[in-house]
Amino acid sequence: MGKKIKAEPFKIKAVEPLNIITREERDKRIKEAYYNVFNLKADDIYIDLLTDSGTSSMTDTQWSALMQGDETYAGSKSFDRLQEAVERVLGYRYVIPTHQGRAAENILFGTLLKKGDLVPFNQPFDSTAAHINVNEAETVDCVVDIAYDTQTYHPFKGNLELEKLHRVIKEVGKEKIPFVMLTLTNNSGGGQPVSMANIKETKRAASKYDIPLYFDAARCVENAYFIKQRESGYSTKTLAQIAKEMFSYADGCTFSAKKDPAVNIGGFIAVKNESLYLDLISRLVLYEGFYTYGGLAGRDLQVLAQSLYEMTNEDFMEQRIQQVNYLGESITGAGIPIVNPIGGHAVFVDAKRMLPHVPQSRLPADALAVELYREAGVRGLGLGVLAFSKQDTVTGAVTFPETELLRLAVPRRVYTDRHMDVVSEALSRVRDRKDEISGLKITYEPSRLKHFLSRLEPL
Ligand code: F0G
Question: How far apart are CA 220 and CA 242, in angstroms?
Answer without folding.
Answer: 10
